[in-house]
Amino acid sequence: MSARITFATAARVLRQLRHDRRTVALLIVVPALLLALLYFMYDGAGGTFDRIALIMLGVFPFVIMFLVTSIAMLRERTTGTLERLLTTPLGKIDLLFGYGLAFGLAAAVQGAVATGAAYWLLGLETRGSAGLVVLIAVVNAVLGVALGLFCSAFARTEFQAVQFLPVVVVPQLLLCGLFVARGQMAGWLEGISDALPLTYAVDALAQVGVSADPTTTMWRDLVIVAGATVVALVLAAATLRRRTP
Amino acid sequence: MDNAIEVRDLVVERGRRRVLHGITCTIPRGSVTGLLGPSGSGKTTLIRAIVGVQFVRSGAVTVLGRPAGSAPLRRELGYVTQAPSVYADLSVRENARYFATLLGLHAAEADRAIADVGLSGARHQLVGNLSGGQRSRASLACAMIGEPKLLVLDEPTVGQDPVLRADLWGRFHELADAGTTLLVSSHVMDEAGRCDRLLLIREGRLIGDDTPAAIRASAGTDDLEEAFLRLIREQEKVAA
Ligand SMILES: Nc1ncnc2c1ncn2[C@@H]1O[C@H](COP(=O)(O)OP(=O)(O)OP(=O)(O)O)[C@@H](O)[C@H]1O
Ligand SMILES: [Mg+2]
């Protein structure tokens, strides 16, 4: 592992992003627009809007970064750049951390814009601070990046890569407690929900909603999400083979 | 050690089919070796085994005195894949500078490599907007950065005009004179004459391994293309 190579790789990924203006615009504007849509759906700010918008601030970066990363990594595999990179001094960890860093940074900008719009333009109110919301959003985004890096190994084409969204992301979304409170689910569903990282991210955000100071539960949740990210990165490293058939 | 590459009894299977049937050859340091053979004969597979990205069934590949693919070799080796493997959404220069950084080299070395392949005028262009030939030169530039000890090039001159091709081969020989070992695969027989040595491969078997002059002499013709055809026919007679 080399810091120079990791940073160079992150810079390279960000440069690729910069040349793709439309993607940058979509990354930054779409979450804020979707929140505005929620605002009008619930007829202005208030209890339900606050609860759902807060959770969405954590869900959007997760979903978007998962998608962007799995396509980016798939391209590395199909265009031969990955094969070439693995014949250079670049280590697998350098590549994975480089991606995590680059898209984590992009997620920070995206999270700041979306959170800013939610609080100042759409009147979102939470007991806890907006800074914590951005922090959780960024950790969530990096979880999305890690899962995207891992899942891209199982896709041969971009069509397949996109199909991992319903497989990996939607069940987590359905079971995270947004639609049905986790306590009201059948026991086995709650068990599955306990095993899914997004559950903890959503719980952490809910904590920010109800308490002025960061709670221990919130920190515990964040540590669990970060732990799941590390596990996904290790699994992703295992899918990066220098030798292929 | 005057051999840069030693391949012994190399057997490779791809998709349950045997693609290389026990290849043995050596490639001397500081030379330009051509790897020639029909489409599907196993050139890319042999090259992948040498750069250490190919699963091999059996046999040994030693590169610069170490097993192929071992970590220290990754700083000594430049590899150009058959399809240009550069980032289409970066400029030529951003690509070259990224690959330079991976080797711990400066931007100036990246710019030098871009000039060597004649792309200085297009260095700010996105690779995705280049012509096919320019794109493969961009890929070549990224491998030539910092004059690696071993350059393995899979059909680097495809789609280049005769003038550019002559320039590139001139540069290959300059590098070889400075001590770099080059292994260059090609379809084009007129390029074979520019090599110090030739490896002729057919259906995963080596059917010739010598200097162009020796191959011409043993086949009894001055035309390398004809020599290659005669070698194939001889091989078929032996097999029959
Ligand atoms: N990924 C793969 N899986 C299975 N078989 C493969 C794969 N890649 C190549 N092959 C087979 O291996 C054999 C040798 O292929 P290789 O790419 O080494 O040929 P080549 O000499 O480089 O051909 P060309 O001049 O067309 O590039 C071919 O029969 C090909 O069909
Ligand atoms: Mg080939």
Provide the fold topology.
The complex is a heterodimer of chains A (245) and B (240).
Chain A (H helix, E strand, L loop, with lengths): L2 H16 L2 H21 L5 H32 L2 H5 L6 H30 L8 H22 L6 H18 L11 H9 L1 H14 L5 H24 L6
Chain B lengths: L2 E12 L2 E12 L3 E5 L6 H9 L6 E6 L2 E2 L9 E4 L11 H11 L4 H10 L15 H13 L5 E5 L7 H16 L3 E6 L2 H4 L4 E6 L2 E6 L1 H8 L4 H16 L1
Parallel strand pairs in B: 3-8, 3-9, 6-7, 7-8
Antiparallel strand pairs in B: 1-2, 1-4, 4-5, 9-10
Helix pairs in contact in B: 2-3, 2-4, 3-4, 7-8
The structure holds adenosine-5'-triphosphate (ATP) and magnesium ion.
Main location (chain A): membrane
Family (chain A): Belongs to the ABC-2 integral membrane protein family.
Pfam family, one (chain A): ABC2_membrane
Number of strands of chain A: 0
Task: Quickly give the structural class of chain A.
Answer: mainly alpha
Helical percent range of chain B? 25-40%
Q: What is the beta-strand fraction of chain A?
A: under 5%
Return Rg of chain B in Å: 18 Å
- Name the chain pair with the biggest interface and residue counts per chain: A-B, 24 and 31 residues
Mean pLDDT of chain A: 91
**Heterogens:** adenosine-5'-triphosphate, magnesium ion
Biggest β-sheet strands, sense, barrel of chain A: none
Low-pLDDT residue spans of chain A: none
- The arrangement of helices and strands of chain B along the chain is EEEHEEEHHHEHEHEEHH
What's the count of strands of chain B?
A: 10
Q: Enumerate how many helices of chain B there are, as a single number.
A: 8
Class by SSE composition of chain B = alpha/beta
Distance between the termini of chain B: 39 Å
Strand % of chain B is: 25-35%
Main location (chain A): membrane
Keywords (chain A): Antibiotic resistance, Cell membrane, Membrane, Transmembrane, Transmembrane helix, Transport
Transmembrane segments (chain A): 24-42, 54-74, 95-122, 128-150, 162-181, 222-240
Pfam families (chain A): ABC2_membrane
